[in-house]
Amino acid sequence: PKPGSYDIVSSVYDGRKELSRDSLQVQIAGTTLTIDPPGLTNAELLVKHPFDLTADGIPTGLDKVQFLIYTFRPGQPQSLYGFNTPVIKGRASGSDTQTYGVNGVYGLIVQV
Question: What are phi and psi of 33, to 5 degrees?
Fold first, then answer.
């Protein structure tokens, strides 16, 4: 579904007789995550490469979010870590730095 506010209605029936009905309003956020740069080609080895992380469209009522970062690298165990950052006017931002030690395929996955 698209971002917005939705009503969900649930009913319980016994045959054709409605026994109960309840409704719930849910808010679907339209949060957008941007990673800059979105990728690297020919990255230099043993050099710190910064990535700027920005989440926009965070629902009102949240004063902080967590960026969860998952990385994988050749010959090394996978890594999962995160950090909290404040939300200001629906936006949160932070940064991460990656250093690559050997040639190969690396992965950086970010979740808000």
Answer: -105, 130
For the full predicted model, state whether its pTM sits above 0.85. Answer: no
What is the average per-residue pLDDT within 86-96? Answer: 95
Alpha carbon distance 63, 75 (integer Å): 38
Instruction: Report the alpha-carbon distance of residue 27 to residue 40 in Å, rounded.
Output: 35
109's enclosing H/E stretch is strand 107-111
Do residues 3 and 57 make contact, with C-beta atoms less than 8 angstroms apart?
yes
Distance of alpha carbon 30 from alpha carbon 18, whole angstroms: 35
**Overall residue count recorded for the chain in this entry:** 112
Q: Which secondary structure element, helix H or strand E, spans residue 80, and what is its range?
A: strand 79-86
CB 82 within 8 A of CB 55: no
